[in-house]
């Protein structure tokens, strides 16, 4: 199974790198993944016209590859959380593949006009209900905000407010892979057999140190989960290899 994970387009940002985004989308098409996950901040200010433009890019992929997109904190600005639903679709949802081997559960971690994130009790209950139904499938959870602090991102201030509660649910219901964005720094961990991976930004100029614009690709077989970092204008390298729980 191949999963492509893109994040943080920031359409509308000053010096937004449109050429890089288009290049990344073409690369993903050539990879031909089973599913594409877009983990938020597709816009920079949550403005209607930014969403219209972002949807054009998303449609390039979603028309040929199953795609799930969740909102980020920038998407929730200026009543953008309502526009997201109108233009992009539901802020949370479930995506299943035809042969029913995996399921992707998308969560809305955004709060209107705030940079911090939260899942909340009701959405957590819904998450657990969907995880119960997934049973023995490969379970993927996607959200914008990171649950575990990301190294080399400075002072921690935007981690999920209810991270502890959500972590408990993820471990309790044997989630295999959790993907997010937000900090523009790619990284991966293994916690209790669950792989957590953050993606960098595909097309924003807001980069830390010498980090390039990038996206992640996950290669999954019966025994392991391999996390690949794909530089849009550079090399591809392995971020981590992890044994599957039941591999």
TrEMBL record:
Gene3D superfamilies: 3.60.21.10. GO terms for molecular function: hydrolase activity; metal ion binding. Keywords: Hydrolase, Iron, Metal-binding. InterPro entries: Calcineurin-like_PHP, CNP_phosphodiesterase-III, Metallo-depent_PP-like. Residues 2-186 form the Calcineurin-like phosphoesterase domain. Signal peptide: none annotated. Pfam families: Metallophos. It comes from the Archaea. Belongs to the cyclic nucleotide phosphodiesterase class-III family. This is Metallophosphoesterase.
């Amino acid at each position: 199974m191949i999963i492509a994970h893109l994040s943080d387009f920031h359409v509308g940002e000053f010096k937004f790198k449109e050429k890089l985004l288009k290049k990344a989308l073409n690369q993903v098409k050539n990879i031909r993944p089973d599913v594409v996950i877009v983990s938020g901040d597709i816009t920079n200010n949550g403005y209607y016209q930014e969403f219209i433009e972002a949807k054009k890019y998303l449609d390039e992929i979603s028309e040929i590859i199953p795609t799930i997109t969740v909102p980020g904190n920038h998407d929730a600005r200026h009543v953008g959380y309502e526009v997201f639903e109108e233009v992009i679709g539901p802020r949370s949802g479930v995506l299943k593949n035809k042969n029913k081997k995996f399921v992707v559960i998308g969560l809305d971690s955004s709060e209107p006009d705030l940079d911090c994130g939260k899942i909340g009790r009701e959405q957590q209950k819904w998450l657990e209900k969907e995880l119960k139904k997934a049973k023995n499938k490969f379970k993927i959870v996607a959200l914008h905000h990171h649950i575990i602090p990301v190294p080399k991102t400075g002072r921690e201030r935007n981690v999920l407010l209810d991270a502890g509660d959500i972590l408990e649910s993820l471990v309790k219901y044997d989630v295999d892979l959790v993907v997010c964005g937000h900090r523009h720094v790619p990284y991966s961990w293994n916690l209790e057999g669950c792989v957590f991976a953050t993606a960098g930004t595909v097309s924003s100029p807001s980069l830390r140190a010498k980090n390039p614009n990038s996206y992640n690709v996950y290669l999954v077989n019966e025994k392991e989960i391999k996390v690949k970092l794909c530089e849009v204008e550079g090399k591809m390298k392995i971020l981590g290899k992890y044994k599957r729980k039941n591999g």
